[in-house]
Specification:
By secondary structure, the protein is of the alpha+beta class. About 25% of the residues lie in helices and about 20% in strands.
């Protein structure tokens, strides 16, 4: 029978904290750590980023001033490829959902065999949204206001009292399309019909996911959290591991944030970046206080793995090997997917990717999450963070039903919803910071109202600022 480790006490910031003034003489980055440990280095991890972003921090006014919201809508949300939903959200032909971003709304339709279409979510008659907040299904799209009807490709098929609309025809009044494409089980849209293809916007990222296909996964948990922050400061919190020291003390015995590797790629068309953090490696801030055995116990408790025998976890290497072996067994038992032969890195470590403007897919089984950030309405002070837990699906296995999305309001916490589990707990830790950052931006002295960014730890934030400044055509 497994023992239970009380992980809650590790959420106490007084338990694991760095000694004031602590600095590091030698702290290898992720790939070097693996090599020093004698572990196999995944080829994707060994391929380092090729871009060094400029150091032009974005002034806080771009997070706070309402005048920039319509500019962002025009220059980013109407111009960039963005995730609208996952294919599993609309699995049958005729299924459709609305994708809302700021004041915009788009209709995403499963329009044919392995085919998806997207349109401005507005009836050509008098602009009524064609799809509301709940998924819909049918062999045609009919406006609930006056019954104007369209086929699944957006073509106008019926107008009641057609004689009163002499110019109404499929050629003149069909739905207005936007670009639509898929990658990794995600349905992307781009309202700009002149924009380059999705493949250009994703850059090197798809090549790194060839051995971790996101389309062969299903949503096991789904959360949408409304937050009183700007969408940019929300996603920036997940572009670095520098905040783990005080934000996620419960994770410090398990994940070595100080060994984190960051990489950026930018060819002028794609802005993508990556963060990799090892698991079962006590964080450098507390490594002298945490034995590898304790790291292993906490990891197993958190991930639902068997409590380790007394002779396991004497070293970091043994702790990682045990956790990797048990992870293989867990997936084999739960899904039938066999990860035998995969690297320890793939099985237990955190590999988080980001594609501008707002999407975060994760590689591997360590944390197989998925994030998306979108502005809410016309306010610079509100956004939605969408989180999914994507589990592997065995080849040929039926896809489980999509779970109900847990929608968490502004004033609510993830821990108010037990079904969110550890995801909700970790999310709450981040939300506490993000909302105070937004308030702090408003409280900053206007003379110095911009961030100070680290050269390496926050290089991905620098890259985001660089991409944003370019997209918005800002001169700083």
């Amino acid at each position: 029978m497994n023992e239970t480790v009380d992980i809650t006490k590790y959420g106490n910031r007084e338990y694991v904290r760095a000694v004031l003034g602590t600095q590091f003489e030698h702290m290898p980055q992720y790939v070097d750590f693996l090599r020093e440990a004698g572990e196999d280095v995944p080829p994707t991890a060994a391929e380092r980023g090729t871009h060094r972003p400029t150091n032009k921090p974005l002034p806080y006014e771009y997070y706070l001033d309402p005048k920039y919201v319509p500019v962002e809508i025009e220059k980013i949300w109407k111009k960039k490829w963005q995730v609208a939903c996952r294919e599993e959200d609309i699995p049958e032909i005729g299924d459709r959902v609305a994708y809302d971003v700021g004041p915009l709304s788009f209709l995403i339709v499963h329009s044919g065999e392995n085919e998806y279409s997207a349109f401005w979510n507005s009836c050509r008659h008098r602009a009524r949204r064609l799809c509301g907040n709940k998924p819909e299904h049918g062999d045609m799209v009919q406006c609930p206001f006056h019954a104007w009807s369209y086929d699944l490709k957006g073509r106008l098929t019926w107008v009641p009292r057609h004689e009163e609309f002499p110019k109404a025809s499929p050629e003149t009044f069909s739905l207005r399309p936007v670009q639509c494409d898929t990658w990794g089980g995600n349905v992307f849209i781009n309202p700009d019909l002149e924009a380059g293809p999705l493949s250009e916007a994703l850059g090197v990222m798809p090549s790194h996911f060839l051995d971790c296909p996101q389309e062969d996964r299903y949503t096991a948990a789904w959360i949408k959290k409304k937050v009183k922050i700007n969408w940019k400061s929300g996603l920036e919190a997940f572009l670095e591991g520098y905040h783990v020291l005080t934000t996620h003390p419960s994770g410090m015995p398990i994940f070595g944030s100080t060994y984190t590797q960051t990489d950026c790629w930018d060819d002028g068309k794609a802005n993508v970046s990556r963060l990799i953090t090892p698991a079962l490696v006590p964080d450098g801030w507390v490594k002298n206080d945490i034995h590898p055995r304790l790291s292993l116990e906490l990891f197993c408790n958190t991930y639902g793995l068997p409590f380790p025998p007394e002779d396991r976890g004497a070293t970091v290497a043994d702790a990682r090997a045990y956790a990797a072996d048990e992870t293989i067994k867990l997936h084999r038992a739960e899904s039938g997917v066999d990860f035998t032969g995969r690297s320890i890195s793939y099985l237990v470590d955190m590999h988080q990717w980001y594609a501008f403007p707002a999407h975060f897919p994760w590689w591997g089984e360590g944390l197989s999450w998925w994030y998306n950030f979108t502005p809410l309405g016309d306010s610079p002070d509100e956004c939605v963070m969408e989180i999914r837990w994507l589990r592997p699906l065995a080849k040929g296995a039926p896809r489980p039903a999509l779970p109900k999305c847990v929608e968490i309001d502004f004033h609510e916490q993830g821990r108010d919803y037990p079904e969110t589990g550890q995801v909700g707990f970790i999310m709450d830790e981040d939300m506490e910071n993000m909302e105070e950052v937004h308030r702090g931006m408003k409280a900053a002295d206007p003379a110095v109202a911009r961030p100070i960014l680290a050269t390496e730890q926050e290089i991905r934030v620098r890259h985001f600022h660089e991409a944003y400044i370019k997209a918005m055509e800002i001169t700083l």
